[in-house]
Specification:
Layout (H helix, E strand, L loop, with lengths): L1 E5 L5 E2 L8 E7 L4 E8 L10 H7 L5 E4 L4 H9 L3 E4 L2 E2 H16 L4
Parallel strand pairs: 1-5, 5-6
Antiparallel strand pairs: 1-3, 2-7, 3-4
């Protein structure tokens, strides 16, 4: 699965989804993650409601992690079939927490 991360510097999850002009994409195979590419989005920081531009750039991804996500964005992300997580902090830490949680949930035997 592909994980898109809204980051201004490639080190921290620190951008609002609707203003994310910089996306770092990782591939997660169920065990480990690896960086794939950096994508940019043409965002005018003076305009509102540009989340559709960001969604277009990550349409091939499964998950988006951003520092914040607006109400309309959340609806659009969900409608597009992506999962959204609001998180802040170092990308390395955020990915590790997601991977640990993913593995824990998939190891549960019912």
């Amino acid at each position: 699965m592909k994980i898109a991360i809204a980051s201004s510097d490639g080190k921290n999850v620190d951008l609002h989804f609707g203003k994310a002009n910089s996306i770092y994409v990782y591939y997660f195979d169920g065990e480990n993650s690896k960086f794939i590419e950096h994508r940019t989005v043409e965002i005018d920081l003076n305009e509102r409601h540009q989340w559709t531009k960001v969604l277009d750039v990550i349409s091939d991804c499964d998950i988006i992690m951003s520092a914040q996500t607006g109400f309309k964005s959340k609806y659009g992300i969900e409608k597009a079939g992506l999962k959204s997580f609001e998180v802040k902090g170092p990308i390395e830490t955020v990915l590790k927490k997601y991977i640990d949680h993913y593995k824990f949930m998939n190891d549960i035997i019912i």
